[in-house]
Amino acid sequence: xxxxxxxxKDVVLLGDLNxxxxxxxxxxxxxxxxxxxxxxxxxxxKSTRVTENSKTLIDVIILSNPSMVKESDTFDLIISDHYxxxxxxxxxxxxxxKSYIQVRSYKNYNSSRFAQDIGKIRWHILDIFDNTEEKVxxxxxxxxxxxxxxxxxxxxxxxxxxxxxxxxxxxxxxxxRDRSHRKARRSGVERDWSEFKEKRRITKQQLRARExxxxxxxxxxxxxKGDNNCIWKTIRHCLPxxxxxxxxxxxDATVVVEEFNxxxxxxxxxxxxxxxxxxxxxxxxxxxxxxxxxxxxxxxNMFQLRQVTTEENDDYEEAENNxxxxxxxxxxxxxxxxxxxxxxxxxxxxxxxPTNQSGNRKQHSTETLGLAVSDYILDTMDRKQITAMVLxxxxxxxxxxxxxxxxxxxxxxxxxxxxxxWFASYLFQRKQQVRIGKTLxxxxxxxxxxxxxxxxxPLLLNLYIYDLPNACTGSEIYSFADDTTL
Length: 486
Known about the structure:
By secondary structure, the protein is of the alpha+beta class. It folds into four domains: 12-89, no CATH class; 100-157, no CATH class; 168-238, no CATH class; 255-306 and 316-485, no CATH class. It contains 15 helices and 17 strands.
């Protein structure tokens, strides 16, 4: 209970405590003292279990904030000798606070001048350094200095999206309604309140007018003819969406991000993307990738990722109820792409790719998986056999990969000792931070797993579960990444 109170949330305790609050005995006294000590209140005052010989109040509702109670009562359920207890709380939806994000300003950005300034950098100074860490740090400083001068960072406020159906006429009605409301509150006269209610009714009627909405949607689709993106944007506007309000954490933000980072680094997608207007081609010397691969070492900062959480279901303050999105440095993806291409070519040439795996493979997709499963079922039907299908989804498949076991499996695939040292450095030297809003956690080592948003992550998962079919004798296995059909 002491821990619950530190969360700074409303507390509601209810149930059959088998303690009769109508009696004045040691049990009811102890429960009463408990409520007093923790500033709680028991709000049920009627008998909750009635028999021929007794009446007792043993089903209780205990609250930390009784002022929020609109009503509470009991009623007979017939099917039980206990009455049903209920409480109706007067809750209000929390007001969304102001939100700010940090973005790069491309107002004065010129792609030609940016490419020219990048080309003027003396990249040959990277050859001075003998280790990858110093090269990466120097590269980041040189590149960031040019980027900041052409596209500086600035903080902007996230504004609410305008309501497309808000016509000038409706805005005038809302202004008149609010003015009438203020007048009624000042005067308290019944006539003013009646006038306000009538204007409120008319305003609601106009806001909910289906004709205006249909006309707006038809006009949007008509004007977007030939542009599928705009059409689908209009259609999505018509569909109900999940609540996108960002939750307010009861704990301090720094405590939350550290707890999330603890969870995410021990349980063992979307990657950052360059703005389209700067994703142009300009030549950079591949000295960092070359040194990283020849020395079989990986710099901590080069592969450090940031996990940005997005809420799923249940209690959003529990780390396991959140889905992390990996934001990886662009430089790390270049190095991973080189390794991925070489390793994939090796696996194809030596026919070492898992034949039952359709995920993350060239010329394979969910379509090829569906064809393989359907063909197998039809074949068994032709042989007068019955097929039973089990669908499996591995929980946190990417996060739970054992680094040491993965290295052993890579060795079995014929990976050379030098390449194996690079993979060991890539796996064991990875670090991550968790960011929620503007709060960033400390950096921690990742003890298990591979990043799902990385270039190598999906390939390494395929190789990690390569021998899964060997564990299931008498059955066929077809997989798409971490989804498996048995």
